[in-house]
Amino acid sequence: MAHDEMSRRENRQLAVASATVGPWRTAAGVGAVVGATALGIDAISGHWSLGMLAGPAGWALFFFFLVGTVGGQLRRDTSERRLRRWANDHPWQSALPAAGGLLVLDMLAQLLLGDAGLFGAFFLALLPAGILLAVAGIVGSVKQARTKE
């Protein structure tokens, strides 16, 4: 079955499945280090409150999803060959699950830990999710162009 003959549901399932092949353990480590560093910098400033956790949580989530998504696109192992070929052919679509996950989790972090309301938390989380989508889509597009040469 060609990619053009797939239903929207099948394409969504492939996008989520392609997001699972990233180096998520490494991404968790990088996210934890970045979040702890940001928390340490905020703690030095002396403004102690629950709201000081929202920024470091956002940074940790952003770098977790960034390393996991981009690392998954750049991996060269041969496992899941058909899934990797689909992700190479659809770089922007394969970056959507990570951007959506970042949007939801960062919005919850801003809402629960920060001082933002519902719409404020949404708009605070929208920029990092958009940046993640752009970076992962561009990396995937460049990889796609380089592999077709």
Distance between the termini: 25 Å
Determine Rg (CA atoms, Å): 17 Å
Beta-strand residue fraction: under 5%
Total strand segments:
0
The shape, in one word, is elongated
Can you offer a commentary on this structure?
The protein has 149 residues and is mainly alpha-helical. 79% of the residues lie in helices and 0% in strands. It is built from six helices and no strands. It has helices spanning 8-19, 24-45, 54-74, 81-89, 91-113, 118-147. α2 packs antiparallel against α3 and α3 (54-74) packs parallel to α6. The protein is elongated and about 55 Å long. The model has no long low-confidence stretch (mean pLDDT 85).
Reconstruct the topology from this structure:
Blueprint: H1 8-19, H2 24-45, H3 54-74, H4 81-89, H5 91-113, H6 118-147
What's the quick description here?
The chain has helices at 8-19, 24-45, 54-74, 81-89, 91-113, 118-147. The protein is mostly helical. It is elongated, with a radius of gyration of 17 Å.
